[in-house]
Design brief:
single chain, Methylamine Dehydrogenase, Chain H, six-stranded mixed sheet, 47 strands, 5% helix, 42% strand
Amino acid sequence: MVLSKQRFVVCCPLLVLGIVLSGCASGNTSSGNSDFLQPPNFTVTPNAGLVASGQSIQFSTSGSSGSLVNLAWKVNGVEGGSSSTGTITSSGVFTAPTSAPKNPVAITATNTTSNETTVPAQVSFYSPGNIPGGTVSTSNNPLVALYSVTAPFGSKVQVQFGTSTGYGLSTGLVPAPGAGGIANILVAGMRAGTTYHMQATTQLASGQQVVDADHTFTTGTIPASALQPITVVQPATAAAAPGIELMDVFVVNSTQLLAFATDLAGNVIWYYQMNPGETPFPIKPLPNGNMLLTVQGTISDDFVREIDLAGNTVYQLSMTDLNKALTANAIGFQVQSLHHDIEKLANGHYLILANYTKTISGQSVLGDAVIDWDPTMQKPVWTWSAFDHLSLSRAPFGIADWTHANALIYSPDDGNLIVSLRDQNLIIKIDYQDGAGDGSVLWRFGGGGDFTLPAGQDPVEWNYGQHYPTFISPNSAGIFQMMFFNNGNGRLLDTSNDVCGTPGFAACYSSVPVFEINETTKTANVVSETSIAPHFSSCCGDAQMLSNGNIEYDVALDALTPGQSYIQEVAPGPTPQLAWQMNVQVTLVYRGFRIPSLYPGVTWTQSAIAASSASVAKK
């Protein structure tokens, strides 16, 4: 259900803007002289614009059969324009008049050498009093609204929302499209079956702010059968960090939500509806505001999939197409699964974690690979295989699942890659160098690897079946700090190499250590550790340092609480203090971690989240 206080404009801003932008220049030659030619391929870029008073925009041309040096730029057929319609320089810089005209103007360029004139570009003028208000409509996701508002060139739009006109939460800033037009903002972070108020603010390039009227939007409902059974056993204390929880649940062929976000009260405020037979493995937010998934499919393919907050697919690569490209580019392996992690780099490439099987000395060995995929060229541009760089002589858990990589991290300081190999009890650094590296293993972190620990820490503090390494220092190379969830599988308890869980020795337990690592001296030291003993998660999970200095971790498969995953936030110290805990029943939460909000650069404090739902009865 969508309502608005601006009923007289809510349905038609696209139509009105279309009329405005279609303008007054139709039927006229842009030169004002019928002797000039107007070939359809001789065009001006951009071909339409929406500018505020006094604002400038650069135009260019393409497609002329002659030289583009001798151009006469015109506004409504007048070379150089005028103070009433806007001026344009000989290099194509148009500046709007200080008093915005009601009608659009036509921008053309005449090639004085070839006697050709461009197809006209049309510029409309933004005046807050003459531009229709925004509209709010439904999207593909019942919990996500689509707010559309007219925004001029160089402006940005942000929407605040909440259950009252006090709002509370806001989206990120969305830039106006191209040279101006309709900006579409996906508003997400709302509870199901609830009416919200929302209001857009357009920030003009001049610094002026234009505020739209208040609109209301009622979110759809989620069937009770689709919800994971969530219980908040420790409500967030004042010490809890800001943000919300993003989770992906590993359950095959489930009809319940598998990729979703909740507030700290356990209310689902966003989700992505997987296709039947699909499992998110994992899901993570991107700096561009989208979500990135590795999708494992029990019915069809595995996929790399980037989606927007409404669940629309922005980019997708199937494993079938990936393997075709590997063959076409003479890469000597075919992957059989996409799994556990994925990264998207600043250059738009995807780093894909995959695995494949080789038969070695009559035995089937499953090992991992990393593929740098260029989505523009639709091809792999760099690959790495564990079979080329690691020795089969190290196989603590056997060779049937030899490496079992579960995390892939980009190191921005040196452009290399960190890979967590669970079944090797190793975290390794790979020579990637932003695609120029040879793939050699620069170091191996773990017992029997390339680093040493101080006396008393070796071997009990090494990583055993670890998950989710993260950098918690500003730097990622040289001397840096790294945290991970140390599952503790087969943890060696002493220098006699006695193994946890064996008769006569202590039970296995999980912990969250913080290591300081020196790449030059190949030394490491545990600077802090949060133990969750006697609890032991034999697989999965993650750990992170939160913005307030607390530590959060996902205990995915605790031997002491079967059939339940739980996420805890604790204030670290000799006796860690529990600041918040959420339990998820009868599922395996592969990763559950705090994100500041659903929007890059925006942090939702717990007080703001509470304010945004002030009129909603607590559940």
